[in-house]
What we know:
This protein is 40% helix and 15% strand. With 275 residues, the chain is α/β, with parallel strands linked by helices.
Amino acid sequence: MLIGAHVSAAGGLHNAPLNAAALGLECFQFFSRPPQGGRIGPITKEAANLFRDTCDQHEFERCYVHAPYVINLASAEERIRKSTIEIVRGEIDRASILGAAAVMFHPGSASGVGEEKGIALVIKGMRQILKGYKGSARLLVEISAGAGMVIGDQFEEVRDILAGVGDERVGVCFDTAHAFASGYDLRNDAAVAATMKKFNSTIGLKYLEMSHCNDSKVDLGEKRDRHEHLGKGFIGKEGFRAIVKSKVFSKVNLILETDPEGVAADIAILKRLRG
């Protein structure tokens, strides 16, 4: 288990590992492009080399890219679906150039099409994204918080997506706050064991690539995406102690996505619980 956090790459991609090193991280996550969209140029050879060299200098062997927020594979609008396919394919290509392990993304909202068609659109889109792909980065479906018609809040939906895509390069990013808001309890040893037993029987632990590690500002099953610093939300420190000590998570890297103010304290909590 490596402990990391989302860091900024503003001013140059190499700043992501520099910022991660300043926080004492063991792995990290970043945006390789602006999260709210917009046109970008290709990653130059010089920028890629500088990024990888900086990672090597600070002994980072594992990093992850988070896809932009403006994507939706389940959209009722073909224009948005096509744009999403282009963006996510671009991200796994960019991640491969940088040597990142994986790209995680939110499948999107099925508003206007319904759940069944929405899942079918997500499967179709992911197949198109991976068609002809020769890179090294995996594509991870992130567990969602389940607000509205968002796809991926229930393990069964994620299972159906993975089965429909049928590609070993696809995995899962387990977000603690999202799963909790979607009704999966993580507040103590028994709850973590029961939730991950359900994950294994429904999806399969072999797909669990990494985990976003966030407390939740909303209570169990409230279906809203509201991250909180560790121990200050409804999951609580006992929940994160159970997560860190669980055999299921023993080789799963944890990435914090809490506010920069206070993230250092969250990192210290995870390291203390682990050690």
